[in-house]
Amino acid sequence: MHTVRLDSEETHTPTYSARSFSHPVPKFRLPSSGMDADAAYQLVHDELNLDGNPALNLASFVTSWMEPQANALAAETLDKNLIDQDEYPQTEMIHERVVSMVGRLFHAPTNRQPVGTATIGSSEAIMLGMLAHKRAWQERRRQASLDVERPNLVIGADVHTCWEKFANYFEVEPRVIPMAQDRFTIGPEEVKPLIDERTIAVAGVLGTTFTGQMDDLEGIDALLSELNAERGWKVPLHVDAASGGFVTPFSEPEMRWDFRLENVHSINVSNHKFGLVYPGMGTIVFRDSSDLPEDLVFHINYLGGDMPNYSLNFSRPSNSVILQYYTFLRLGAEGYRRIVSTVLSNAQALAAKLGKIDGLHLINDGSRFPIVAVSARDDRIDLMELSHRLRERGWIVPAYTLPPNAQQITVLRMVVRESFSRDMADMLAADVTKALHTLRQGASPASRPRKRIHC
User: Fold this and answer.
1) Smaller CB count within 10 Å for the chain: N or C?
2) Residue 257 has pLDDT above 60, yes or no
3) CATH number of the CATH domain containing 431
């Protein structure tokens, strides 16, 4: 949300000795006249140079590099709206193939009718999944002549902020399990006391945003099997696999976290993370079509033939779906295994170097997910200041405090993506060492506001 700057008369002033444009251009109101296309391009291009370098951005999970052929496909499909299924039937066919590939990767049961859709990202996917579970819960309650007030959702404090958004926007009570000083994930022991007959779902995370770990999904599934059988409930488990959904199937294929667990009824994944496509794209897959109430699917015909639509928005670019299909074809399962193995190896190499630095404590060593997280052993080390010192070298490495009840712990977290090489790991570790040495020399940390992490 941004304030509309009604009082600002700031301008872009002429550059390059006024070769391209010779008069100021307003920043916050529509210019009275246009300019040459090359001049407009150069102005915007130069201003974006002030952004951080995506190659040095270890804050984000999002893919920042694709092959030239993928870039060409992205440009070729910029003008195709994914919602126009009647006009672009082959694009919709590719959409169906991508959803099917994701569902089969997650072991969608063959004795059911799994359904799913591409989304803008995991935030939309999670909201769509939880809306379906809320509506299904309400329908079960109505059929049993019970009230449908006060639905709740059991989540850990390790979830992404989009879960809080869902609870706020769609009026569901979030029953949040706080962290502890020595526990940053959740398991059945923490979940059990919070579940009741009004619980629409329990959420577990495969690859947490804060520390790059995973919840005890098998344990939570076993708990739900027990409670649902004993009390006649149908509480589903939703797996937020935004970060891990394209890692674990290739690094630990035998791990049971997906639809192989009987209570997992929906899974979301961020294709624009380790699915290796540009933002924004996610996918939501349901175990069975019965998990998605029919009244949430809108059938429209004013763009042509009947087009079922399940989304929070309407129009959206098609190129992210096309790019995912390209990447699936380009890499295959073997290609993904190779890339996942490489990023995990690079993450572990970075973690090993950071773990040897005096004063740092490894929270996550990158062995399961390509995420490295450290805390400070020494109270005199200010990780916030260390983050700012690294920014001076171009590195974007976030530092933040953990949620309650672990808010006394500050974490420095690094996401290792495909474009992050072993040489870069060496350079980053060296820059961390130098920055810590500078801080220990008595440099006074600047007072800066602490911001919550964004991914």
Assistant:
1) N
2) yes
3) 3.90.1150.160
In a domain, 382, yes or no: yes
Closest CA to 102 of 334, 264, 258, 308: 258
Does residue 60 lie within any of the structural domains?
no
For 179-193, 242-256, 279-293, 440-454, which range has the lowest pLDDT when averaged over its residues? 440-454
Domain end (from 292, 326, 360): 326
Q: Examine the domain organization and report whether 22 and 168 are in the same domain.
A: no
245 and 339 in a common domain: no
For the beta carbon of residue 298, count every other beta carbon within 10 angstroms. 11
pLDDT digits (tens, 9 = 90+) for 243-253: 999 999 999 99
| 454 band by pLDDT with thresholds 50, 70 and 90 | very low
Do 233 and 243 touch, CB atoms closer than 8 A? Answer: no
Q: What is the pLDDT of residue 305?
A: 61
CA 403 to chain CA centroid, nearest Å: 18
Whether the model pTM is above 0.85: yes
pLDDT for 447 beyond 60: no
